[in-house]
Amino acid sequence: MTHVVTEACIRCKYTDCVDVCPVDCFREGPNFLTIDPDECIDCAVCIPECPVSAIYAEEDLPKDQLHMTEINAELAKLPTWKSITKRKAALPDAEEWKDKTGKLDELIR
Protein backbone atom coordinates (compact mmCIF):
# COMPACT_ATOMS: atom_id res chain seq x y z
CA MET A 1 0.00 0.00 0.00
CA THR A 2 0.92 3.63 -0.34
CA HIS A 3 -0.25 6.98 0.86
CA VAL A 4 -2.18 9.39 -1.32
CA VAL A 5 -2.44 13.17 -1.41
CA THR A 6 -6.03 14.25 -1.96
CA GLU A 7 -7.69 17.30 -3.50
CA ALA A 8 -7.40 19.15 -0.18
CA CYS A 9 -3.78 19.94 -1.08
CA ILE A 10 -4.64 21.65 -4.37
CA ARG A 11 -3.93 25.40 -4.26
CA CYS A 12 -2.53 25.10 -0.72
CA LYS A 13 0.63 23.02 -1.05
CA TYR A 14 1.66 23.04 2.57
CA THR A 15 4.95 21.18 2.72
CA ASP A 16 5.14 20.18 6.39
CA CYS A 17 4.85 16.56 5.24
CA VAL A 18 8.08 16.54 3.25
CA ASP A 19 10.22 17.33 6.29
CA VAL A 20 9.26 14.07 7.99
CA CYS A 21 9.32 11.71 5.01
CA PRO A 22 12.17 9.23 5.50
CA VAL A 23 12.31 8.21 1.84
CA ASP A 24 11.70 11.49 0.01
CA CYS A 25 8.66 10.23 -1.89
CA PHE A 26 6.97 13.62 -2.35
CA ARG A 27 6.98 15.32 -5.74
CA GLU A 28 6.15 18.98 -6.28
CA GLY A 29 3.99 20.51 -8.96
CA PRO A 30 2.89 24.11 -9.42
CA ASN A 31 0.00 23.97 -6.93
CA PHE A 32 -0.04 20.44 -5.49
CA LEU A 33 2.17 17.80 -3.91
CA THR A 34 1.96 14.15 -4.85
CA ILE A 35 3.35 10.95 -3.38
CA ASP A 36 5.27 8.59 -5.62
CA PRO A 37 3.69 5.19 -4.90
CA ASP A 38 6.88 3.39 -5.92
CA GLU A 39 8.86 5.27 -3.27
CA CYS A 40 6.36 5.43 -0.38
CA ILE A 41 7.10 2.91 2.37
CA ASP A 42 3.70 3.29 4.05
CA CYS A 43 5.16 4.69 7.27
CA ALA A 44 2.32 7.20 7.83
CA VAL A 45 4.49 9.87 9.46
CA CYS A 46 3.27 12.43 6.92
CA ILE A 47 -0.43 12.09 7.80
CA PRO A 48 -0.46 14.07 11.07
CA GLU A 49 1.87 16.72 9.65
CA CYS A 50 -0.56 17.91 6.98
CA PRO A 51 -2.43 21.00 8.25
CA VAL A 52 -5.35 20.38 5.85
CA SER A 53 -5.62 16.59 6.36
CA ALA A 54 -4.89 15.94 2.71
CA ILE A 55 -2.93 12.68 3.12
CA TYR A 56 -4.49 9.25 3.61
CA ALA A 57 -3.38 5.66 3.53
CA GLU A 58 -4.69 4.28 0.25
CA GLU A 59 -7.05 1.89 2.04
CA ASP A 60 -8.52 4.77 4.08
CA LEU A 61 -9.24 7.15 1.20
CA PRO A 62 -12.69 8.72 1.30
CA LYS A 63 -14.83 7.41 -1.56
CA ASP A 64 -14.94 10.82 -3.23
CA GLN A 65 -11.12 10.82 -3.37
CA LEU A 66 -10.43 7.37 -4.84
CA HIS A 67 -9.51 8.94 -8.18
CA MET A 68 -6.51 10.59 -6.49
CA THR A 69 -4.60 7.30 -6.28
CA GLU A 70 -4.19 7.23 -10.04
CA ILE A 71 -3.54 10.97 -10.23
CA ASN A 72 -0.75 10.74 -7.62
CA ALA A 73 0.90 7.89 -9.54
CA GLU A 74 0.59 9.72 -12.86
CA LEU A 75 1.93 13.06 -11.62
CA ALA A 76 4.80 11.48 -9.68
CA LYS A 77 6.20 10.17 -12.96
CA LEU A 78 6.14 13.49 -14.81
CA PRO A 79 9.69 14.75 -15.38
CA THR A 80 8.65 18.28 -14.41
CA TRP A 81 7.44 17.11 -10.96
CA LYS A 82 10.68 17.01 -8.99
CA SER A 83 11.40 15.52 -5.60
CA ILE A 84 10.86 17.91 -2.69
CA THR A 85 12.67 17.19 0.57
CA LYS A 86 12.58 20.48 2.49
CA ARG A 87 9.67 22.53 3.73
CA LYS A 88 8.77 25.65 1.75
CA ALA A 89 6.21 28.33 2.33
CA ALA A 90 2.67 27.39 1.33
CA LEU A 91 1.15 29.07 -1.68
CA PRO A 92 0.35 32.75 -1.05
CA ASP A 93 -3.43 32.22 -1.06
CA ALA A 94 -3.38 28.85 0.75
CA GLU A 95 -5.45 30.16 3.65
CA GLU A 96 -8.25 31.11 1.24
CA TRP A 97 -8.26 27.61 -0.32
CA LYS A 98 -7.57 25.31 2.63
CA ASP A 99 -11.22 24.63 3.52
CA LYS A 100 -12.60 24.46 -0.01
CA THR A 101 -13.65 21.16 -1.55
CA GLY A 102 -13.98 19.99 -5.14
CA LYS A 103 -10.71 21.57 -6.25
CA LEU A 104 -9.69 19.07 -8.93
CA ASP A 105 -10.40 21.58 -11.72
CA GLU A 106 -7.78 23.85 -10.10
CA LEU A 107 -4.98 21.27 -10.39
CA ILE A 108 -2.13 22.45 -12.60
CA ARG A 109 -0.28 19.55 -14.15
From TrEMBL:
Keyword Acetylation: no
Keyword set, alphabetical order: 3Fe-4S, 4Fe-4S, Electron transport, Iron, Iron-sulfur, Metal-binding, Repeat, Transport
Domain (4Fe-4S ferredoxin-type) ranges: 1-30, 31-60
Names of the cofactor(s): [4Fe-4S] cluster; [3Fe-4S] cluster
GO MF annotations in UniProt: 3 iron, 4 sulfur cluster binding; 4 iron, 4 sulfur cluster binding; electron transfer activity; metal ion binding
Record InterPro entries: 4Fe4S_Fe-S-bd (IPR017896), 4Fe4S_Fe_S_CS (IPR017900), 7Fe_ferredoxin (IPR000813), Fd_C (IPR022569), FdxA (IPR054829), RnfB_subfamily (IPR050294)
A family per Pfam: Fer4
Biological function: Ferredoxins are iron-sulfur proteins that transfer electrons in a wide variety of metabolic reactions.
Protein name: Ferredoxin
